[in-house]
Design a protein that fits this description.
The protein is mainly α. The chain folds into two domains: 11-150 and 311-329, no CATH class; 159-285, no CATH class. The chain has helices at residues 11-39, 45-61, 80-100, 102-111, 115-121, 126-136, 141-149, 152-199, 202-229, 234-272, 281-285, 291-326. Helix 2 crosses helix 5 (115-121) and helix 8 packs antiparallel against helix 12. The relative contact order is 0.13.
Length: 331
């Protein structure tokens, strides 16, 4: 191991060289990842295609030509045992370090990040992969971590787009809701004005006067009946009073019906223009049925999927450059 303590990586160089590599191979890398996504759910085959992804990084580092279909090569199956063992130990050690302290897990993850490439490229055994990866990443982990941290940028952009779309839809629905509420309140106020104007009209008050006269008549007749019957027959008085009250109620019902008819006739045309009643924002926006929200979710998923693909593709270029530089530290 020569000059193992000398750093060969810098954040600026990683980005600059990775963009150059990405520009050259991005379409083939993208196609490779799309094929990998199609097979990731198929047991056994997904292990071979994942090894194919790691092999692709090595080939880019070695400036070798590759095809997206290379991830299906049968030769990857010969590396199943070593790959599964490396994967198990890598994630077990990383998880173990994370349990104690998250930062410890991050350090371990970056220290052992080259084990798969060393196994594929240099054919090192299990122990040497871990040992050499740890040595060549010494002094380089901060640069690698800062570059990996930048992978959050596409997701942040996707989240900002998602929130912007949601905010636009929310704002439009809020405006529509407020307009609906205002329209109903204006209609209700106009209805109240028409009803008030009708009830204070001379015709309405004239009919209402009939009810007052009938009530006064009933009252006077009850007084006469009281004077006539109460001193010697309470039952006769009660019968007479009930009859008078019933007669008044019939007049009252008739008058009220005529008054209601006058109000209904006056407000008939206005009631035809009644807008939809808005009971709540939730019902008005109609979550789950509103077309705006039906297409919003697929769009958000799409943007996050695109962000993930961008990270995958760029990470391949980053990994190939980092491995190529760290490999120089191997004697």
């Amino acid at each position: 191991m020569n000059n193992k303590s000398i750093s060969v990586l810098s954040v600026s160089n990683i980005f600059r060289k990775s963009f150059e590599i990405n520009k050259k191979h991005q379409l083939k890398v993208l196609a490779t990842y799309l094929l990998w996504l199609l097979t990731i759910w198929i047991p056994y085959i997904n292990i071979g295609t994942t090894i194919g992804l790691k092999t692709m990084v090595v080939k880019i580092t070695n400036n070798e030509d590759f095809s997206p279909l290379d991830i299906f090569k049968v030769e990857h199956r010969a590396y199943f045992g070593e790959f599964l063992l490396l994967s198990f130990m890598f994630y077990a050690i990383t998880l173990f370090g994370t349990i104690f302290f998250i930062f410890t897990g991050i350090i371990i993850q970056h220290a052992l990040s080259q084990i798969f490439y060393l196994g594929i490229d240099k054919k090192y055994n299990f122990a040497d992969c871990f040992k050499i990866s740890y040595k060549i990443t010494f002094g380089e982990k901060v640069s690698i971590f800062l570059v990996r941290l930048s992978y959050l940028v596409p997701y942040i952009i996707a989240i900002l787009i998602s929130f912007t779309l949601y905010g636009i839809i929310y704002g439009l629905n809020e405006l529509k809701y407020n307009n609906a509420v205002n329209a109903y309140e204006r209609w209700e106020k106009k209805l109240s004005d028409i009803e008030f104007s009708t009830r204070t009209s001379s015709n309405y008050m004239k009919i209402e006067e009939e009810k007052k006269q009938a009530f006064q008549k009933m009252k006077n007749e009850k007084i006469k009946a009281y004077d006539k019957y109460y001193s010697w027959s309470k039952y006769s008085y009660r019968d007479e009073a009930s009859s008078l009250e019933y007669e008044y109620k019939q007049i009252e019902y008739s008058v009220d019906a005529r008054l209601d008819s006058i109000v209904n006739e006056a407000t008939k045309n206005h009631r035809k223009e009644e807008p939809a009643y808005v009971s709540s924002k939730w019902r008005f926006w109609n979550y789950g049925e509103n077309p705006a929200y039906k297409w919003l979710e697929p769009i958000l998923i799409f943007f996050n999927f695109i962000a993930t693909l961008c990270v995958f593709v760029f990470n391949t270029s980053v990994s190939s450059y980092i491995y190529g530089q760290l490999r120089k530290k191997i004697s």
